[in-house]
Amino acid sequence: MLTPVFMEMTVPSGDMLKAARLAAGLSQVEAAALMGYPVQPGSRGGLQSRTWQALESSKDERNMPGPVFALFLLLTHQHADWSLAPKASQVAAT
Question: Which residues contact 13 (CB under 8 A, 6 or more apart)?
Fold first, then answer.
């Protein structure tokens, strides 16, 4: 049996989330799509994610859950201590 990995999973403020998104070079829509948040047509054309906008807003009380933020950091190669890697069986198959 494998031992679970325990990592810090900070709940980010809106400013922390925005900084991480910008560091990853993603728009709000791209970040929302990556994390499975809804994306819908915007009022001025194009797409938007009201959920992601709310998560980045200092005026909204909603925050991204810590485990979701940890996954965002992992997927965008920004986590301070961990990185994602393919399993050995996937590497051997390529």
Answer: 58, 63
7 Cβ neighbours under 8 A, 6+ residues apart:
70, 81, 82
Q: Roughly what angle, to the nearest 10 degrees, separates helices 14-23 and 66-75?
A: 10
pTM as predicted = 0.86
Q: How far is residue 82 from each of residues 8, 52, 77, 78, 79, measured CA to CA in Å?
A: 11, 24, 9, 9, 6
State the DSSP H helix or E strand holding residue 79, giving kind and residue range, or none if neither. Answer: none
* Pairwise CA distance, residues 75 & 84, whole Å: 7
Cα separation, 50 vs 42, in Å, equals 9
Q: Quick: pLDDT tens for 28-73.
A: 999 999 999 999 999 888 999 999 999 999 999 999 999 999 999 9
